[in-house]
Write a structure and sequence with these properties.
The complex is a heterodimer of chains A (210) and B (327). Chain A is mainly α and 210 residues long. Chain A has one domain: Four Helix Bundle (Hemerythrin (Met), subunit A) (Up-down Bundle). Chain A is globular. With 327 residues, chain B is α+β, with helices and mostly antiparallel strands. Chain B has a domain of 212 residues: Oxidoreductase, molybdopterin-binding domain (Sulfite Oxidase, Chain A, domain 2). In chain B, strands 3, 4, 7, 8, 9, 11 and 12 form a seven-stranded mixed beta sheet that branches. A five-stranded mixed beta sheet of chain B has the order 2-1-10-5-6. The relative contact order of chain B is 0.13. Classes of the chains: A mainly alpha (210), B alpha+beta (327). Chains A and B meet through helix 1 and helix 2 of A and helix 1 of B.
């Protein structure tokens, strides 16, 4: 039985590494010629990375028969929201200097900005309801249904990235492919559950006749 | 079951009790350190702009170009950007689509021998050796603003000569109305040309009067030294009142025509990039506004200037034209 507290600390520390390195590089003025753009871009990418990681938990735990992986999922989701908020702050501060009138205009005039805002907007109730208390308040079924919003959040995030690129769409497309696989797994799992998951021996129901 | 005899294990080999109790802590610490290091290395590989490598290059230019300006100012008194920034933040997809990756990928790009063929509607078509081109006219320092369509900008101290000098050499015919430019196509030397990110070779065009304008130059140097590959060596166009992508790099061919030439970005996304592409804060790119820009080296944003601040010299070229329709 894995030590879940330790596993969580491994995830916590590793997820903070990019932020620490960003700060370290910023302090040493090593963020390139356009540091504000670099921070904005990197935090955006990290948001997508953590969204994808959090969506990879369920396929992995079912395919590998490791149910305890689900206990790491909340931290991954919170990190996605965390990096997403920093990314939004970069836009509001560095690009728009807190001019909220312009930001409002941008959101409805520029599809890629709208999609980015949508993604973070959708992730907010997920972050708020991530606590154990909230799970109890909503009840498992309602909570699960609410948290399916992670799917549109991720899709909007990938589209946001795809639409802002000028010509080299390789990275957003790669994210899209990975996301398609992770979402596709859920569709497959619904219709072919025995094929897509490995049930750990101790969870197998042993019929009474044995 | 094998029961060890007492003298099989020396007492000195017995693990120290403190270590024994702390073994799990040790293992956990080792796992944390190993994973964090791996994550860090992965991040470094994928994210960090390779600024370190440029230090060798910046040492070569006169004062290192370390201080912004180093004496190079626009007529309006703006200081040139640092050499290190100008040579490590480039849109040159032939080498890399990462602005901070072009310098590394373009290292070693061979620019000699180099020829430029000038042909089309001219009386005296000629293929020039680079050395001949550089002798046509004394090279001058031209400190220009460069505004990228992506809404960032720099001040760049080019070293070049007016494009008109080379066009006069070939004597354009009276029917010539446009000038087309073509970049080198050689996937062996420009590795990204094996990927179809843009249709290669890169092409651009100007109206003849824009090409003959005194501001339009062919640049062969930067900060008083020959151009580095990432800046378009050995010869590139600079049209400072238009978005940067019009200033085509590593030119091998110039053709005088009577029909408006196509240009690569217009071909790729005609609704976003037009033939004229004059810097214009009132005409937004479909996906973002062009009203402001980030000057590299500054923290705030600046208002974008009509014609990138060169309106008093070029506005007359477009009098009567609808610049929204002719974006």
């Amino acid at each position: 039985m894995p030590d879940i507290k330790f596993s969580k600390s491994v995830v916590f520390i590793n997820s903070a590494v990019p932020l620490v390195l960003l700060g370290w590089d910023a302090y040493h003025n090593r963020l390139g010629a356009n540091p504000l753009e670099f921070v904005t871009h990197t935090t955006g990418t990290l948001t997508l990375v953590f969204l994808v990681l959090s969506l990879a938990v369920t396929p992995l735990r079912k395919l590998l028969g490791l149910p305890w992986l689900v206990q790491l999922r909340r931290m991954l989701g919170i990190y996605a929201y965390f990096y997403g908020c920093i990314h939004l702050l970069c836009y509001i501060w560095f690009d728009k200097s807190f001019k909220f009138g312009e930001i409002w205009q941008d959101t409805f005039k520029r599809p890629f900005i709208f999609l980015g805002m949508l993604s973070l907007f959708v992730m907010t109730p997920l972050a708020i309801t991530s606590t154990n208390q909230m799970v109890k308040r909503l009840g498992g079924q309602r909570w699960n249904r609410l948290h399916k919003l992670a799917y549109p959040a991720a899709i909007a995030g990938v589209l946001h990235y795809y639409l802002l690129v000028k010509a080299d769409t390789r990275i957003p497309v790669s994210f899209g492919i990975v996301l398609a696989l992770l979402l596709g797994y859920r569709i497959l799992n619904k219709f072919f559950p025995s094929a897509t998951q490995r049930i750990p021996a101790r969870n197998l129901k042993v019929s009474k006749s044995d | 079951m094998l029961i060890k005899k007492d003298d099989d294990v020396k007492s000195s080999e017995i693990t120290d009790e403190k270590l024994y109790h702390g073994r799990r802590k040790f293992i956990r610490g080792a796992i944390l350190a190993a994973t964090a290091t791996t994550t860090g290395l992965l991040y470094r590989k994928l994210a960090v702009p390779s600024r370190e490598k440029s230090n060798a290059d910046s040492a070569k230019s006169n004062d290192g170009g370390k201080s912004a300006g180093s004496g190079y100012l626009t007529p309006e008194g703006e200081a040139a950007n640092k050499f290190e920034d100008i040579t490590n933040y480039n849109n040159y997809y032939e080498f890399s689509t990462a602005k901070d990756g072009v310098a590394e990928e373009a290292k070693g790009f061979v620019t000699r021998p180099w020829t430029v063929e000038v042909s089309g509607l001219v009386h005296k078509a000629k293929t020039f050796d680079l050395e001949d081109i550089l002798r046509l006219s004394p090279l001058e320092d031209r400190v220009y603003r460069m505004r990228c369509v992506e809404a960032w900008s720099m001040v760049i101290p080019w070293l070049g000569f007016p494009l008109s000098k080379i066009l006069e050499q070939v004597e354009p015919m009276s029917g010539a109305k446009y000038v087309k430019f073509i970049t080198l196509f050689d996937p062996k030397r420009m590795p990204n040309q094996t990927e179809s990110i843009l249709p290669w070779p890169y092409v651009e065009g100007l109206r003849l009067d824009e090409a003959m304008h005194p501001l339009t130059i062919l640049a062969a140097g930067l900060y008083g030294k020959m151009l580095l590959p990432q800046n378009g060596a050995p010869l590139r166009l600079v049209v400072p009142w238009k978005y940067g992508f019009k200033s085509i790099k590593s030119i091998v061919q110039i053709v005088l025509t009577d029909k408006q030439p196509n240009s690569t970005w217009s071909d790729v996304a005609p609704r976003e990039y037009g033939f004229y592409s004059n810097v214009n804060p009132q005409v937004s790119h479909p996906r973002w506004s062009q009203a402001s820009e980030r000057r590299i080296g500054e923290w705030g944003r600046r208002d974008t200037l009509m014609f990138n601040g060169y309106g008093n010299q070029v506005a007359q070229l477009y009098s009567g034209m609808d610049l929204k329709a002719n974006y």
